[in-house]
Amino acid sequence: MQYSIEKATEILERTPRILNSFLKGLSVDWTQCNEGENTWSPYDVVGHLIHGEKTDWMIRLKMIKNNSEKKTFEPFDRFAQFEDSKDKSLDELLIAFAQLRQNNLDDLESLNISNSDFERKGIHPDLGEVSLKNLLATWVAHDLGHIAQIARVMAKQYKAEVGPWVTYLSIINK
After folding, report:
1. Tens digits of per-residue pLDDT, 94-115?
2. What's this model's pTM, rounded to 2 decimal places?
3. Percent of the chain scoring above 70 in pLDDT
């Protein structure tokens, strides 16, 4: 599928509702579980998504879209959520994520990005030159990847309980 803002927005606007529906009200046995050492729980993932809404997508998009000389992105702290989310409930994080995402989508719409803007370039500190279209498509894939990650982490909590069906459950075996 070729990238379009309209198709991307279909996913981006649903992510907060999906996470809210999936996670709100669950016990910490589900929301604080992970896949082992140095892995993330659903709670951690929501915190990570919040950090991205604050410091990544729209900041980088505006940097690419503007005509200034500065096109090199600041490095993204993929672990900032551990400090930023401290002492916050999952419900608080879900509400914050929904609000930040809505603000960013409103901001995105107000920028009136055209297809000709898609080829504008920025510089990623690790990846080098990237286009605005690359950034926007990654935002969508990033959401979907973390939704899948949350489902996988939760499914693995029953790995020892599913018995012989484990052979058929690819989500548990990845």
Report:
1. 999 999 999 999 999 999 999 9
2. 0.95
3. 99
**Residue 23 above 90 pLDDT?**
yes
Please give the domain boundaries of the chain with CATH numbers for all domains.
Answer: 5-173 (1.20.120.450)
DSSP readout, the chain? ----HHHHHHHHTTHHHHHHHHHTT--HHHHS--SSTT---HHHHHHHHHHHHHHTHHHHHHHHHS-SS--BPPPP-TTTHHHHTTT--HHHHHHHHHHHHHHHHHHHHHTT--GGGGG-EEEETTTEEEEHHHHHHHHHHHHHHHHHHHHHHHHHTTTTTSGGGGGG-HHHH-
